[in-house]
Amino acid sequence: MTAVDEHGMAKFFAGFEPPEGIKAELLRGEIVMMAGPDLVHNLIVEDVQDQIPRKRWVRLQTQDVDIVDEASEPVPDLVVLDRQANPGSGRLLPSQLITLVVEVVSKTSVDRDYVTKRSIYAAGRVPAYLIVDPVVGQCVLLTSPVGKGDDADYRSQRLSKFGESVPLELLGIELDTTDFGTFQGVRPHRYP
């Protein structure tokens, strides 16, 4: 896809209204639409959000993110930024203001969360990306983004099983995963 095509797609996406109950994201020039999430998914997002101190951190669910130099506007399940970041207003939150993004894997988002978004968030220089995976009962914390575009990735990866705490050092907390639920009857995958 050429830069003109990607720019055109981003412009089109800015005015795009998905059907009610459908979440839409722009990921590297492609519009991806998903049905509403499972209850297990929503309970995990709520649990993670509740553990992040509100007085120090802004915790936003389903906030559109602007990734610099990318034809991408992902909508993470949770975005965390310092209260002093002062994002202003508008539909898009600049990725450089974000401290942590959280994606809870759904039954249909495994590849997007582990591969596509990993590269997109690293390209946007988001310092930490937490993948919470109720398909296989694990959390993957990615830190230290490097590279650009499709080659961007995180240098550090830490895997924790549900029930173990996840050290979110950038936030100064240990995330308790004891109460995270899992999907039943879903075929496991081999990521990370």
TrEMBL record:
Pfam families: Uma2
MF term (GO), any: endonuclease activity
UniProt keyword terms in alphabetical order: Endonuclease, Hydrolase, Nuclease
Residues annotated as domain Putative restriction endonuclease: 19-176
Family matches, as InterPro entries: Nuclease_put_TT1808, Restrct_endonuc-II-like, Uma2
PANTHER family: SLL1072 PROTEIN, SLR1083 PROTEIN
Protein name (Swiss-Prot/TrEMBL): Uma2 family endonuclease
Species this chain originates from: Streptomyces katrae
Lineage: Bacteria, Bacillati, Actinomycetota, Actinomycetes, Kitasatosporales
